[in-house]
Amino acid sequence: RRLVKMSNVEIVLETQVADDGVTTPHGGQEWRQCKNFIEDFSVTTNGMGPPEKALAAAKAAVATIDHYPPANFEPHISHLAEFLWGEEAELYKNCLQLGNGASELIDLVIRSCAVVGAWRPGPTMAQYEEYKRSSEAAGFYRVAANDNSANLLCMVNPTNPSGDYMRIEELKAYIENNCKPGSVVIVDESMQPWVGPHWREDSLVSQGKWRKAMSVEKGVEVFVMHSWTKIWACTGVRLGSVIAPTAAHMEMIKAKQVPWSVNCIALAFLSAAVKDEEYLENTWRNTALWRKNVVKELNKYFPAWQCIGEPFLSWVWIDTGDELVAAKAVEVAKQHGTPVRWGKPGYKLPTYVRIAVRDEETTEYLIDAWKEAFLGDERRSRAV
What we know:
Elements lengths: L1 E5 L2 E5 L38 H10 L14 H10 L3 H4 L3 E4 L1 H13 L4 E4 L8 H8 L3 E2 L9 E5 L11 H11 L5 E5 L19 H11 L2 E7 L12 E4 L3 H8 L9 H10 L3 H25 L4 E3 L6 E5 L3 H13 L5 E2 L9 E5 L3 H16 L9
Parallel strand pairs: 4-5, 4-6, 6-7, 7-8
Antiparallel strand pairs: 1-2, 3-9, 8-9, 10-11, 11-13, 12-13
């Protein structure tokens, strides 16, 4: 809450967070409530911050806000296609579309391409909640992850928050063996670029022929979803894309998409970001080092806590083993200006906490706060 005085009238403004019982729980909200804010550890964005060149392009694009953005997203969508497929961009660009974050496109695919009925998540303990929200808002009902009768399968790979990851052949085999004809599959690969320089080869991005064959020969429609706001740390502009199995499926999506859903600032940011190869190289190197550091610190001071997830990921999924411990860790982090994501809201995993990977100096603020809260001034070697 903060007090604003306008024309001698005092108005109390209260920061809105996703705590209204309606909005899907999501990280990235509570930092606004921290008077002593240092860093937001509740989101899984790139710890390096936005690419400087892309940020500069976005700022320059503000000067064009008196014009509509291009309705067909050109040339920016072509730039993304080249980023994804290189010399094969023209083969697949007609299956690609941009959206106002992945959230808009998740809604569009589910409402446009799937037959209402049962939906199921991927075979992990928890995953990004937006798929639950969109599916159930569209009239679907949830069934178990192993229920192959579902009309809709929504997977997140790598899985946020649990950190599970299927390599490409395992992922394809899972879809081939567990999806009935006439079903729709959405695979969210938003965190895939962190895999490393070979991320495209280990991604469904590289499987255009397979996606088309699954559609034509087996009647299983596989869509690939990306939120680009994580890898490029630009959650404020809302930027996502979807790859459809065929151009015909993409036409179904475009027919229901509102025009101009990606603004000129986000489009300019995208075109600059996809060209910044040095940024990605630094991301792969730094994220692995920083994650290794935070896991080492957590294992040293809190050996009872289990750190989960692949070494390349931009977050650490932590099982404290105790709901009260997790709740205290969340509250302490918030009080010290370093909010984290609790596993209780949405995921219903109250002993878990998710923290973002950040550089060593910034991470030290969070670790020191937890050491003080759990270990006391004497810095005992184990958590109480």
